[in-house]
């Protein structure tokens, strides 16, 4: 029988660690790209049961330990000031996000679901280091990462505040990234969506940037379908 991702987890984790330590140009980026493909595959597989653990001689929850280790290594790599590595890490999680069934976002049980990410506080802490830095491009990438991690980032009051604050940035790329992150969380948290809608109304009626207006308009479909939100969204769209 072909080995499952859970059975390969330790090997994958070690390979990634070695590649990141080598400091060879391009090798780390290639290793990150490779682990991205593996994470997509892993996310599609059901969690192993007792029979699978026994078949591959695994300790119970061993796969979760190594999946969380892999995620933490990627977050550590993102924290350091290397543009190419940061882009590679973001692409890993964007690819995983876009591989999901968007119509079943709340039912997602993949490798980045809150139930399977045990060290989410440590992951978010590393991204906040970048988000609190002075480089707007890096902050934009950090916001995109938070959007990809919405399933476990949505409950953090600090993360919510940082996303809302970034909506008022003077840097276009950062505002677009914060809209993306907010849109991802809106699909999972109705209370967040209510607050975000009020802010979005203000942004779209005050900005002259067509790019920001377009980015904001795309979010309305993800805000939920309660009567109050639908009514507010309708009134906003009458302005344009």
TrEMBL record:
Any one cellular-component term (Gene Ontology): integrator complex
Annotated Integrator complex subunit 7 N-terminal domain residues: 66-236
SUPFAM superfamilies: ARM repeat (SSF48371)
Any GO BP: snRNA processing
PANTHER family in UniProt: C1ORF73 PROTEIN, INTEGRATOR COMPLEX SUBUNIT 7
Family classification: Belongs to the Integrator subunit 7 family.
Name of the protein this chain belongs to: Integrator complex subunit 7 N-terminal domain-containing protein
Organism (species): Cucumis sativus
């Amino acid at each position: 029988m072909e080995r499952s991702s859970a059975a390969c987890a330790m090997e994958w984790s070690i390979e990634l660690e070695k590649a990141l330590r080598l400091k060879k140009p391009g090798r780390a980026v290639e290793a990150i790209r490779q682990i991205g493909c593996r994470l997509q595959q892993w996310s599609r597989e059901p969690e192993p049961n007792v029979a699978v653990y026994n078949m591959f001689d695994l300790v119970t929850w061993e796969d979760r330990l190594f999946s969380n280790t892999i995620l933490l290594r990627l977050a550590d790599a993102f924290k350091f000031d290397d543009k190419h590595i940061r882009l590679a890490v973001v692409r890993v999680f964007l690819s995983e996000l876009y591989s999901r069934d968007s119509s079943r976002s709340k039912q997602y049980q993949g490798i980045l679901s809150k139930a399977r990410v045990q060290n989410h506080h440590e992951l978010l802490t590393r991204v906040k280091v970048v988000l609190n830095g002075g480089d707007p491009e890096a902050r934009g990438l950090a916001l995109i990462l938070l959007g990809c991690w919405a399933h476990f980032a949505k409950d953090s009051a600090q993360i919510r505040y940082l996303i809302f604050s970034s909506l008022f940035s003077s840097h276009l790329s950062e505002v677009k990234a914060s809209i993306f992150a907010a849109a991802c969380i809106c699909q999972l948290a109705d209370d967040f969506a209510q607050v975000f809608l009020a802010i979005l109304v203000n942004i779209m009626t005050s900005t002259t940037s067509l790019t920001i207006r377009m980015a904001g308009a795309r979010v309305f479909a993800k805000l939920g379908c309660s009567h109050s939100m639908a009514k507010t969204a309708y009134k906003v769209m009458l302005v344009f």
